[in-house]
Description:
This protein is of the alpha+beta class. It has three helices and 14 strands. The longest helix is centred in the middle third of the chain and has 13 residues.
Amino acid sequence: xxxxxxxxxxxxxxxxxxxxxxxxxxxxxxxxxxxxxxxxxxxxxxxxxxxxxxxxxxxxxxxxxxxxxxxxxxxxxxxxxxxxxxxxxxxxxxxxxxxxxxxxxxxxxxxxxxxxxxxxxxxxxxxxxxxxxxxxxxxxxxxxxxxxxxxxxxxxxxxxxxxxxxxxxxx
Length: 171
């Protein structure tokens, strides 16, 4: 896991474009998507793999515990120095597998345990850092404030795979 953190820490990432992070549009927030995704106009694309991407996917696979070794995904979302606001993921199909790593304190990922959750103590699932976790991104979730350097990896199946994939993406 430490090697995975060092790899992410050194990896150049573009500024995170979304307004769902705290502080909004922070210039420290970085992120990128590897694999299948959609542009804002809903056009499906697949990122062009680099040697670094292929090595990172291999490293991620090597860190997955036996319970997640057979997990199939179309997309890897990488995030660095972001604290997402309360939200639901709109493009995930099924469960996601996620990991938060780095030298940080606080910053725990939490998720509502269902659509009718109304008690923070009883109806929230807390996900520990430095451990791969399975979560349902369709449920409300966010990250607590933190100090230090925090990165996260989300393995997911993007809903774009449910539609027709343009030929250009297959190539």
